[in-house]
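Appendix C reproduces, verbatim, an entry submitted by the partner laboratory led by Prof. M.T., so that reviewers can inspect both the input and the predicted structure.
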Amino acid sequence: MQNTTHFWMHSIRGVAFDMDGLMVNTETLYTQVGDAILRRRGRRFTQVLKNRMMGLPSAQAFQVMIEHEGLSDSTEQLAEESRAEFASILTEQLQVLPGLLDLLDYIDQLQLPRCVATSSTPEFAATVLSLTGLESRVEFVITASDVAQGKPAPDIYLEAARRLQVEIGEMLVLEDSHHGSRAGIASGACTVAVPGEHSREHDFAGVHFIADSLADPRIRHLLAGQVD
């Protein structure tokens, strides 16, 4: 564990979840999809490239891929190819990540409002949340399409706090990537990083703490206003 204390200057009155790689295993699936796309072009989807793309809005992420690999494709072409790849694997391979459902149950007990704030497209977010049954567990979903600038800009979390009707310092942001964590920190929200195998090497400087998983008891302590 990175920190032994979880004191935050405000009580937490709302929670904003990132989606990909935090709630569900779609970052693992993104690796499969990215590799399939690049293999057709005689290339490989490396961890270096994945790190540069992770957490960014779709068009921006594919632009990073184009520039990194010197592709002649447009972002629209790569996005369409990605959609087709995901359509073939989502129903069989999509999974909710460990600790999420228990954490949502705890948030229910505390009667705290919560939302999803994702860089994914509205269509993809709706599909993922529907397939996993998570759509009924959150008040609303905000995507990069709803704000002027996507992550790592703070816009999406400022909008999340506005819709949750809480002050930004009263909102907990849970993120798995460096770009997403930077967005949470820049907004002024209490930002906790929950890295997966895909993002353990990311730079999470500035987060409140780095959680071991969504089951990390420090998250519950923070939500309950407890300090060890």
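The chain has a mean pLDDT of 93. Additional entries are available on request from the coordinating office.
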